[in-house]
Design goal:
Length: about 400
């Protein structure tokens, strides 16, 4: 009898975490490595939010809480949904988890049976297909090609829907591409979904606040209120509030689904950290002005990275609407040989040679479902980005 569960054979470890670990190892061994693999802001959590966490500890708010969130945080989340998304959710329609990742995980675990299909636009965040597979269901990829700004065509969505489709996962702005769906594009997606009432929508709005050049963020339940009853609107404080380590994510959705998510959570982690929940109350209710300041820093970095990458031989880098990622194509480098003698046969050999020869850690596009590409997270200092892009230019310039 095998010791490990069969379900483990269906999934693989996160490629982004693997790259980050490899970069960390090389650094520890004394190599000069610039890590552009991790998806977290380099900014510190704002002081008022940290203070709220410290206050919670001092005031003894350190005990178990309601499994799916303290009432104060649910109220702050309801106010956020109303204020920013024009969505009304009652407290029993809101769940709080240990990061958006846990909320997405619990929602999929609570709803998927073997044989169910989940439509995942590619390129996708690495965890979606893995969680779906862990639940015993089948991920169905629909590719949004580079020529379409990495967004899926409504006709492609329609063609992928079968009687077994349970969910469509939307993620805008996207990890890994930064692509953001406009209101009109979501409208067209919604029109398809209205024709298929058995399909639910899980929208991952984690990068809502990181949009540039006047792009207006929209979320599908607001664009089409007739989809409200079958949409789970997922969000969190990790990215916008530089709170990745605090582990707070949340969702709004139909009460029966929210209850099922809570049931799963009650038999695994129980409540998210009480201290982090109080810090998240302050994040959502407190001053929001630093978000715009951070956004501007990210925009400048995006401009720098896009411009420098497009000057690298064989690289084509579109200008994304949001998040803190770019997802250039390295198709023009395939078939060439690096200065160090490595054959570039695909995006994986490209990123491996880049790390070994120039000490720049990026993640291969194949991990996100589209090759030959690679993802750069530009949530790191401008100096490091400049140096990293100079090295990428040199690496590509030396390919023969
Ligand atoms: C698209 C997307 N969704 C969800 C998450 C999960 O974020 P967290 O669990 O920190 O809330 C991430 C983090 O990288 C992400 O990129």
């Amino acid at each position: 009898m095998a010791f490990l569960a069969d379900s483990l054979a269906r999934i693989k470890p996160s490629a982004t975490i693997a790259v980050t670990n490899k970069a960390r190892e090389l650094k520890a061994a004394g190599r000069d490595v610039i890590g552009l693999g991790a998806g977290e802001p380099d900014f510190d959590t704002p002081e008022n939010i940290k203070e709220a966490g410290i206050r919670a500890i001092r005031e003894g708010k350190t005990k178990y809480t309601a499994v799916d969130g303290i009432p104060e945080l649910k109220a702050a989340i309801a106010a956020k949904f109303k204020r920013e998304n024009n969505l009304t959710y009652a407290p029993n329609q809101i769940t709080v988890g240990t990061g958006g990742k846990q909320v997405l995980y619990n929602a999929l675990m609570a709803t998927l049976n073997p044989g169910d299909e989940v439509i995942i636009p590619a390129p996708y965040w690495v965890s979606y297909p893995e969680i779906v597979a862990l639940a015993g269901a089948t991920p169905v990829e629909v590719v949004g090609p580079q020529e379409s700004g990495y967004k899926i065509a409504p006709s492609a969505l329609e063609a992928a829907i079968t009687p077994k489709t349970k969910w469509l996962i939307l993620n805008s702005p996207s990890n890994p591409t930064g692509a953001g769906y406009t209101r009109a594009e979501l409208r067209a997606i919604a029109d398809v979904l209205l024709r298929h009432p058995h399909v639910w929508i899980m929208t991952d709005d984690m990068y809502e606040h990181l949009v540039f050049d006047g792009f207006e963020f929209s979320t599908i339940a607001e664009v089409e209120p007739r989809l409200y009853d079958r949409t789970l609107t997922v969000n969190g404080v990790s990215k916008a509030y530089a709170m990745t380590g605090w582990r707070i994510g949340y969702a709004g959705g139909p009460a029966h689904l929210i209850k099922a998510i809570g049931t799963i959570q009650s038999q695994s982690t129980s409540n998210p950290s009480s201290i982090s929940q109080w810090a998240a109350v302050e994040a959502l209710n407190g001053p929001q002005d630093f978000i715009a300041t951070n956004r501007e820093v990210f925009r400048k970095r995006r401009d720098l990275v896009v411009s420098m990458l497009n000057q690298a031989k064989g690289i084509v880098c579109p200008n994304p609407e949001g998040a803190f990622y770019v997802f250039p194509s390295c198709a023009g480098t395939i078939g060439l040989t690096s200065a160090g003698g490595a054959s570039i046969t695909d995006d994986e050999s490209f990123v491996t040679a880049l790390l070994e020869e120039e000490g720049v850690a990026v993640v291969q596009g194949s991990a996100f479902g589209l090759a030959p590409h690679f993802r750069i997270s530009y949530a790191t200092s401008t100096e490091a980005l400049e140096e990293a892009c100079t090295r990428i230019q040199r690496f590509c310039g030396n390919l023969r």
